[in-house]
Write a structure and sequence with these properties.
Number of strands: 5
Order of helices and strands: EEHEHEHEHHHHHH
Strand order of the largest sheet: 1-2-5-3-4
Strand content: 5-15%
Distance between the termini: 24 Å
Structural class: alpha/beta
Largest sheet: 5 strands, mixed
Length: 214
Amino acid sequence: MNFREITAGGIAPGVLYRSSSPIDPRQGERRFVADALLRRTGIATVVNTADCRLRFRSFAGYRDTYYARLDATDQVALNMGHSYASEAFLEDMGNGLDFISERPGPYLIHGTEGIERTGYLCMVLEALMGASKEELLADYLRSYEEYCRVEPYTAPWRVARAEAISNLLTFTGAADEAALDSMDLAAATRTYLLEKVGLSEVQIDLIVAHLSKK
């Protein structure tokens, strides 16, 4: 079900989680396990990267989930696309991050499989919190390894790694992978959030403060 805690960089334990969908019927039995873990971990704020609210409320069995018991003000439904540099995606991401800045944790970020859009958003937060390139790649690839059963260093794994590097280049502005090794990733991510996503310094500082402590 791809449900796990993230503690990369300065993210405190018990604050940030990622998962495949706890409610989408296409996830089969996985969704029931993810929903149970959502309840067990005491998640207070949910960022759904995949759906609009109307759509996920129409999922079969939704009303019987713990997810459905969360107040509407504890959920944000972004319905994000996959064009990470597009204005629409940046606007959606800004709405999601603004939501995090205003709400207490613990947080769950999920999509359908919890790999691509969720992975991108989690990479941004991890980098902002001071994660190294190695930590960022390891967390992104873990989803492919555990959810998709991709063996490390195989051709599909290398494709996934190239995807992760592409994500890093998108939000850090680095010219290539080699440039990432000498870059202050946290500073570059803060600049991205300010200049591309449109967050304020206050919003970014609130996100950092929320992720730094339980």
